[in-house]
Design brief:
The chain has about 325 residues and is α/β, with parallel strands linked by helices. About 30% of the residues lie in helices and about 25% in strands. An eight-stranded mixed beta sheet has the order 6-7-8-3-9-10-12-11, with helices on both faces. A four-stranded antiparallel beta sheet has the order 2-1-4-5. Bound molecules: adenosine-5'-triphosphate, iron/sulfur cluster and magnesium ion.
């Protein structure tokens, strides 16, 4: 069982508890199912209304699968998901549809997110039509308003996705999410395809829009530098598990898990001075473990420079090191 983070449940617009997503392990010529691999493994989280929760972890750790399961695009294997306090398992098909319409997803791949043969106007109109807004004048008013919010001129409406820059396309993708006034935005690495100068602009824009629309945001990233400005809370994900969870400031000032420290060190803009402060952390060579053959002990033991006999053989529990700060490591506070 996951440790409950000490927060007011009624503030959570979306939450999950002990979420498990398994995929089958297939072998041989006939792809016989020989077992199950855990891709999202016991994740519990609460997204507070109007706040941003960032999920940070390296490629392949399960971030996108987690978002897809939370959105209901993929079925969970176990655990509970609640939207505005109601369990997904108890929702009718109609209620699930309403829930999904309140959650919009921004993907990393902006070209793939927009239909190449639809003009920007058509791309922005489509979700409004699907949402039953019949009056073309009303649609135009909403589109022009949102376009202004994301900093694009009306002349872009007649263009096609390939006629826009990466930054402009990402603004259109964000505008497409906003036209239907969502409650929650899932942003899956929304800026990783953009160059550095545009990244800051898009993050600033997301922050402004969040305030304006009172959005709750689940933001996925590889890199702790990216989420520093915008996240209220940060979850560090490794091999399908949340290994550290704390308010953003706490993560940057008082990270406890060796993996979080590696991520901090890997973000040059925020790790300045860490070396001087005796910050000594590295990663053993190697990749994420194979989910079909997980380590017996701590999920990070194959790469952790502090791993000892116990780490290799026992799984650490999630432990609260202070009121809102959870760490999953035997040596939290020591390393
Ligand atoms: N449908 C599927 N069947 C089997 N395995 C899958 C499936 N979808 C994803 N996986 C595996 O789940 C793991 C996590 O994938 P996921 O896409 O969530 O990673 P990620 O953290 O989003 O990585 P990235 O940062 O590169 O986007 C990967 O090992 C992937 O191969
Ligand atoms: S439990 Fe051991 S292997 Fe795992 S992160 Fe902590 S020190 Fe490293
Ligand atoms: Mg992903």
């Amino acid at each position: 069982m996951a440790v409950e983070i000490n927060e007011k449940k009624e503030d959570a617009v979306l939450s999950c508890s002990d979420l498990l997503k398994q995929y089958p392990i297939k072998k041989g010529l006939f792809h016989k199912v020989v077992g199950q691999k855990n891709i999202v493994d016991g994740v519990s989280l609460e997204l507070e209304r109007g706040k941003t929760l960032a999920i940070v972890g390296e490629s392949g750790c399960g971030k996108t699968v987690l978002l897809r399961v939370l959105l209901g695009i993929e079925n969970k294997t176990d655990g509970t998901i609640c939207f505005n306090g109601k369990s997904l398992d108890k929702m009718s098909a109609q209620e699930k549809h309403v829930m999904q319409s309140k959650i919009q997803m921004i993907f990393q791949d902006t070209l793939g997110s927009l239909h190449p043969r639809m003009s920007i106007r058509e791309s922005l109109e489509e979700p409004l039509i699907l949402n039953g807004i019949q009056d073309p004048k009303e649609r135009e008013k909403i589109i022009l308003n949102v376009l202004e919010q994301v900093g694009l001129a009306p002349m872009f409406l007649e263009r096609y996705p390939h006629q826009l820059s990466g930054g402009q396309r990402q603004r259109v993708v964000i505008a497409r999410c906003l036209v239907v006034t969502p409650e929650i935005i899932f942003a899956d690495e929304p800026i990783s395809a953009l160059d550095v100068s545009l990244q800051a602009q898009v993050i600033n824009m997301l922050m402004d829009l969040q305030e304006e629309y009172h959005l709750s945001m689940l933001l996925v990233a590889h890199d702790l530098a990216v989420v520093r400005q915008i996240a209220d809370k940060i979850m560090i994900m490794y091999f399908g598990k949340i290994v550290e969870y704390a308010p953003s400031k706490e993560i940057y000032k008082n990270a406890q898990h060796p993996y979080t420290k590696v991520l901090l060190k890997a973000a040059p803009s925020i790790s300045k001075g860490l070396e001087d402060a005796g910050f000594d952390i590295a990663l053993k060579p190697g990749d994420l473990p194979d989910p079909a053959n997980p380590p017996k002990g701590c999920p990070f033991c194959t790469r952790c420079i502090y791993a000892d006999e116990r780490c290799m053989n026992e799984k650490p529990e999630q432990t609260m090191v202070s009121e809102n700060h959870m760490v999953m490591c035997f040596k939290a506070g020591e390393v």
